[in-house]
Each structure stands twice: as C-alpha cells, then as structure tokens.
Amino acid sequence: MDLPMRWLDEYVDIDTTTQEFIDKITLSGSKVESVTSLAKDITNVVTGKVLKIEKHPDADKLVVTKVDVGAGEPLQIVTGAPNLYAGAVVPVALVGATVYHGSSLEKIKKGKLRGIESNGMMCSIEELGFTVHDYPEAPEYGIYIFKEDVPLGADVKKLLEMEDDVVEFEITSNRPDCFSIVGLAREAAATYRVPFKYPEIKVEEKGEGKTEDLIQVEIQNPELCPRYIARAVKNVKIGPSPLWMRHRLTAAGVRPINNIVDITNYVMLEMGQPMHAFDIDTIDEAKIIVRNAKAGEKITTLDGQERNLDESMLVISDCSKAVAVAGVMGGENSMITEGARAILFESANFNGPNVRITAKKLGLRTDASAKYEKGLDPNLPLDAVNRAVQLVEMLGCGEVCEGMVDCYPNRREPWNVEYSTESINRLLGTKLSEKEIIDLLDLVEVKADGKNAVIPTFRPDLLTEADLAEEVGRFYGYDNIETTLAAGTPTVGKKSYTQTIDDKIMDTMISLGLSEAKCFSFESPKVFDKLNIPADSELRNTVTISNPLGEDFSIMRTVSLNGMLNSISTNYNRRNESAYLFEMGKVYIPKTLPLTELPEEKNVLTIGMYGNIDFYGIKGVTEELFEVLGMRSKVSYSPKSDIPFMHPGRLADISVDGISIGYAGEIHPAVADKYSIGTKTYVAVISIDKLYEYAEFDRIYKALPKYPAMTRDIAVLVKDSVIVKDIEDIIKAKGGKLLESIQLFDVFKGKQIPEGYKSVAYNISFRAGDRTLTDDEVNSPMKKIVKELEEKLEAQLRS
What predicted TM-score, i.e. pTM, was given to this entire model? Predict the structure, then answer.
C-alpha cells in the first residue's frame, strides 16, 4: 500500500520528517517496505518567458529564442519545439540541470546546435518525468506551457506540485482497513497521539429526481453480496480531473484517466472501498440484479477480453445481460462514454474468497479484487458512495440525485470482547492502570470500560483478549515494556537428541575433509533410467507434484543419489582433481497407491567421493562416523550385489544386528558414464533414522591392563570366494572371553598359492585382567578357531 505523505496531511497534523515518520510508525507495528521521493532527480528547472523567436540560419526546423528566467541576462536557447510563441512561460532546464531523456537521466550542458550557442533546454512534460495523463493540459508533442501567470525563475517542481514522498507499507491480510489512506492515517494519528480527521462528507443533492426512481436493485445471493448501494448522478460532464487529484492518484501509483474514473479510483485509495460506475442508459429495464452467472454465460470486460463465466461466479446484471464481474471488473457493454447523460455509482460488499476464486479462474486480478479478497467492512460502502458523489459536486462534473438504493439484508454490528486489566498486564508484562488501557484502546476507536471492549466493524482482526493486548502494546510502545524473565520456572534451551546426532554427523563429515552439498528434493522421472532402476521397481512409485515448475522438478525423490552424482559430475567436468561431498537430506516414500496420505519422509546421509579414494577409503569414512556415534562395534559389512546403480562386485551392505542401515561401494560404470563421470566414483548411503536408533553415547570406563597380552599369528589358505568377515566371525566366536583383538596383516596370492585360493594372515591377541596367561590357556581357543575354520570354510593352516 502506497501512502503519499502530502495526502496523509489532509487527515493528520504531524510536523515531522519522512524518516522520523517511518521510524515511529514502524515501532507501532506498521511495516514499511520502502520510501520513494517523487521528482527528486529533476534539478535546476525553473520557469522562463520566451521573449523572442528567430529562425535558425542553418536549420529549417530549429529556432533561436531568448528566454527570461527572472535573473541575469536572457538566455539564448535553440529548440525545435513547434508550439512556442513569444510570451509563452515554459519550464527551462538551466545548464547543469538534470532531466529525463526517455527512462534515463540527462545532465544539461552548454553546447552548439548547427553552430549556434544554446544555454539550456526548454522541457516537455515527459522530460520532467510525467505524462499527459498526469497533466492533460500538456501538449502531446512539444514544450509544456503554463496557462496561468506564474513568477519567473520559480522552481517548476513546486509550481506543478510534483514533489512528494511516497511510503510503501506491507499490510497483512488481517488488516483490510489499512489498505486505504484513511486506515493508515488512523494508525498515524494513534501513533502520534493527535486527532484523526475523518473526511467530512456532505452531499447537496442538486440533481432532479430520486435515485430510487431511476434504478432498482435485487440481491439474489446475499451470502456472496452482503450489501449493494446504488446512487445516481445526472448531467455528467466528463473531462480531466484537477491537478491535486491527478497528483494524488499518480503518487499512489494509479494513472489518471478522466474525472469520473478518477473519482472511483480516488475513493478506492482513500477509503479502501472499490467502486464502479455504470452508464444508466445501458441498464435494461433500469434494474440491477446481483446473481450467480449462468452456465456458459460470457462477458466482455473493460479490457476488451471476452470472459467465460461459470455458476460459481457472481455477476452484476440487468434483466437481459451481465454488466460486470462482481468485485473484479466492469463490462464493456455498460462503460461510461463521453456521451453519457446519467451514471450510476456502485458501492458494494462482496464475499472475499469468492472474489479471489473468480479472479483466479478468469486470470484477472485487479486492484478491486485484491481489496475485496481481504474481507471488507460492509458498513464502508455508504461512506464511500457518499464520498464519491461529494467529489462529483466538488469537481462540478454532475448533479447528484436525491437518496440512494441500499440493499443491506443482514447488517453487521459492532461486537464485544471481554477483557480484564490484570490479564492485559500479565500478557504484556506491564503495570498499566485501567484508565491507561481504556485511553490506549480509544486511540484505535475501540470503546472500552474496563471489562468489555466494543470493536468497530472495520477491525475484523480484534476477536480475543490477546488481540486487545496487542493493540495496547503497540501504542504503549514495545520499547517501553521492561525486559523480564518468563513467568514460572525458567527453562534452559538445548538441542534435542536428534539435533545432537545431526550435529555430530555434520561435524564428523567436515572433520574428515568432506564438503556439504545441498540437492533438490524435486526431480525428473528420467532419473530412474539414468540410475538403471528397473521399470517394476518400487522406487519408481513417487509423489507427483501437482503444479511443478517443469518436468525436471515434477516428482519427489525416492533415492538420494541423483543430486549427489550431478554434483560429482559438475566437479569432475570442471576439472577438479577430487571431490569429497556429503548431503543430509530426505527421500519421500508414498505410503499407499493411489496416494491418500502424506508420504513417509526418511532422513538419509549420502556421501559421494572421487579422486584419491578407493572402496576402503569411503568405508573408513563410515567407520569413523560409527565410532563417533558409539556404534562401531555393532556395525558389520557384508557383500551385496542387488542395487542396479552400484558395481555388483564392489558393494557392501552396512547392517546392525542383521538390520540393514545403508550401503557403500563404487557406482556402476554405466551409470557413471550417463552422468559424464570419467573416473571411479564411490558413494555411501546411510539411514539417519537408524543412526538415531542405534547411536550410543554411554562410555564404560575400562582400566589399563596390568598383565601382558599373549599373541598368536595364524595364516590360513582359503578359497577366493571366502570373505574376510566370515573368517573374523569365526575367530570372534571361538576366541572366548580371553580374546582381546584380531588384526588382519596379510592377504597373499602368488606362485606358492594354488589357483583359486588366497592366503590370509591374522595377529590374534589374548589377555586376562587378573593374571598372566599360560600357553595352555591360549592354545585351547586357538585349536577351536583352527578346527572351526577347517570345518566351515575348508581352510588349511599354513605352517
């Protein structure tokens, strides 16, 4: 909402700078977005009188003029303007002035035109930053000429009332009263504790006849149209609006058109009530009917577009046709033309949600619909229509007929909100007296008596005691409220268990040299083909976005690798030697098909690496993470080959107590090729939800050993298909309570080893906490280990 400061002065007497006003109004709860100073870039432009005009000796279309600017010698200015004459008073940009040249600023310099010196420039209205709509008296082509006597050398910006500061407010949708100059003026008056001067509305009604004799009104759907007022004006004279009205409209961002249209726009800006005007002669049988549109009905709106209507839309019609889309835009068939003799002002209240839905269906959002959809006060149309016809009389553009037609079947009355002084003070942390609270509420026209507050109908946001407390706090001043501790037992904020786990994951990844990646949750269905995911895979059952930005962002991801591989690809193709990345994100798994519930959101950690890295490197990253989370001893790795986008021979399943929590390995070369990655790439995907479940931060103290350990080295010959994990599981199972640690120190294949076999060697350590072990105590579990390896894995002990 734009608020021109000069317009504000009509309703509130405040002596302050614009910046001070912004600071103070912000503290009282009105958010200021920006401030614009109109015509601030136009400098050093004054009035001058053309004394003499001569033809240019070397140019047919140029003339040489002498111009008196009120000080010093007359200036010689060369121009090609066709509308100049001796005695004309015009805007003169002196040397050094800045004016507009199209959309950019230009500094005026002394120069020569065809050999003749020129000291300045005479200006058109466009060169001053405005248009003929703002100043209709200006010629469409040529220099602006003042019609009335003005002093020479005077600042043109002041004479044409161009200067103003416009403050832009961000208004929340629960404050429809502030979508108006009057509403913001009421806020300013309350902020500054000065009287609010509501427009004094008086209508003389000099026109012949009564409105009720000229028009009838019927509301067929009072739920969508709670109120409709019609008021007639005869002997209409259409022409330009006066300068003061054009300036206010322009400053507020509305282009002046003619006096009648400008009046409706002026009232909409001033009062916050959209209005429309009809040519009475176009209304069949002199009857307005507010009804729902008929199926297949069409209307051509004022913008010249034919609109298809449906039965959910509300229209204003006569007995044969629709003449306006209610709350959105009028129809071309009832527009006011220069030949109109009598007009009808409409001031109505329409259902906000219905107006919004209608505007959206038609693709036609207007200033009127934007205001209606916030939910306007149905008591406002009366003041608005009277203000409009008052302006008609002030501008002399018509004669107002007696009375009006006002259909208001269900009147909205002010409502009561109960409150207590104690509750208000408790909510705010203040010690205000009953009278102080009453006085503060009175600033916003809320009448209170200490127990009940009567809420004016233009404040739909005031429904509870807490709402009243907010109003008191706003105008008492939040900066005046002392800082206190919260009531009750103070609590100390801390992170939740899951947030702590997230932090440890993040810190561990960063400490290992990885960088965080942020990937989209929205993806393309083509991702599944790039990842070699079969057509019948459950991963292809996705949540589809109903209004996607495009196909590339049309589904919610069910697998997290696409974003990571895209990031790896970008780094690889920009010739980064290596990239170590991780992402903590979500995948979205539909619960049922067809979708009737929100999807299950699973938290996953995705790690992607290439460069100086191999399988054991990324395995080491995961092991360090499990160590930090206190679960390394519970985690096991086993071969896996059923993930289509992973290398079948270089993939490990990660599990805890037999439950899979993720996987780690090398990306399938065919998938890497689709992502234009020309090197081995390793990834790990781990369920963060499972990490929440299995993380363990309890640490048991264990004293340093007092007695020495006894070690044994063992080398066994096993088939190539036997994995190290199977060997270690047997050693752990048969090592007994004295087993302290096992360490793989050699895997060998060579001439001495038969084809299809490998030699695996371990260092096994035993220790007792209360004595030094004997050979017999160690030999017994070693025999069990060797026997189990021979029986289960067909291992052969090497000497």
Answer: 0.66
